[in-house]
Every structure is written in C-alpha cells, then in structure tokens.
Write a structure and sequence with these properties.
Length: about 290
Amino acid sequence: MKKPDLTVIILNYNTKELLEDCLNSVKAHMKEVSMEVVVSDNSSTDGSVAMVRKKFPWVKLIEGPNEGFSKGNNRAKPLVRGKMVLFLNPDTVINDNVFRKTVGYLKEHDDIGALTCKLVLPDGSMDKDARRRFPTPWISFQHLILGLGKEYWYEDVPENTIQEVEAIQGAFFLTWKKILDKVGWFDENYFFDGEDIDLCYQIHKSGYKLVYYPEVIVTHIKGVTKGKVAKWKHKTTTAERRKVRLAGVVSMERFFRKNLWNNYPLLFDYFVVFGINVFKLIRYVRVVLLSAY
C-alpha cells in the first residue's frame, strides 16, 4: 500500500466535543492530500475514546496514561506512515485548502523544516503564539516582566505576511517525519508547555528554516486544557490546572539549561535560573490563591 503524504496526530485529553468537531473538519478536507489520522488519547474519562471508535472508525486510535504533551504525541510514532507529520490540537477547526496549501508549500521548499499557518481565535483575532522568537533571557524579560510582546510575537511584521520565524506553535505544527526522526521528536522531559519551542530549536539547529504561512487559516479555541475557557473549565480539575500552570515555568528552566546555558557566562546563567525560580514561586503563590476561590 502506498504511503500517504501526511499523518495527522491529534493528542486528546477530555475534550470529546471539541475533538469531534476537529475530526469532522479534518474529514471534510481529507481529499486535499493523501493522509491518515491518528488520535492519541491521554486516559480521557469523558467518553472520547468510545466516541472516536463509534463515529470515526477510520481513525487510528492509541491510548496511554496521561504523561503530558510530549509523551502523548510521541506515543503515536509507531503508527505513522506519512512522509509528513502534522501535530494538531483537538481544539482546532480546519478550513478550506489548509492541507493542500501547507503540504504543497513544504514540498516546494527543501530548506523549510517546519511550518504553521495563521491561527485565529473564536473572536476573530490572531493567536499570537503562532509565531514566536526563542525565549532568550532578554526576550523573556521583555515579555514576562515588562509585558512587551512586540519582539516575542513578531508584532513588527504584518500578520498576513509569510515569514521565517524562530518558533511555531504545537497547535498546528507541520514537519517531515525524517526530520522528527533526526532530532528525536518531542523532548519527553517537558510535561506541558515549551516542548514545541524546544522542537523548533532542534529543527533550527539542524539547519532548517521554520515558516509562518498565513495563506490559510485554522480556528483555534485556545486555553481549554489549561482551564482558561469558562465553558470548558469543568473538563479539568483544580489540581490539573495548577499542575499545567506550574509546568510552564518548569519548562522555562528546562529550555534554558538545555539550549542556552553555554551561550552566556556561568555567573549570568545562575542569575537567569535564580530569576526563573523567583518567577516560579510567584506563579505558584498566584495559582494556589486563585484555586482557593
């Protein structure tokens, strides 16, 4: 049997209704390219697995414990037959020409290692995290401490401009399987947050470009897993939301120690790690206080 051009991997955890909408949108556009779909489920308790089996029998389904974003996506690796892999969030809706144009663009440019499209939130605004710079100490200081996101989110470049970027978002992350195999897929030392930026860093380090391609649009209902969307907040427990929020700060330190540590003097490295841990403490206090109400 001929291998498909594309394997779509969707990681799911207790987002049954959103997953169903996502799969319906994928199904509506499957004829654009030769493709297969894999759903990796992180021990959902809301009937997601039964729903997929009943309504989408053509989907490859794999189940496992909830060990985070990286392990959940990597779990699908043995089932992948496509030359390209698209990591797609279940809280997304695919629109016309997304598969055809993104896959075609990647095929036409040998120097591009990964690509994302324009992600649009339900209110019509752009999801700024679709294109980002690497969180170097200076970029992170501006973004997290000063509240200035212009550099981090490339806000100096019009949002409808095709551009090379440093990092793209895991909600729609298209790349080649051969590149994933080369760099080792997602780093499983990350639980949640940071793993997509880290993968971008490894692809970039391997000599490939990463591109933001806004010629097509995907709708992104962002923040469900983190419990940030009131309508879906019941899907996560207080303990789960707390764990996810704190995991983001842990990821900051992981990324810095792994990728940037040797770029700076040792004393500055320890200063950065100290700052990250102060930020971690502040976030912990905030998360605990907010979860108490």
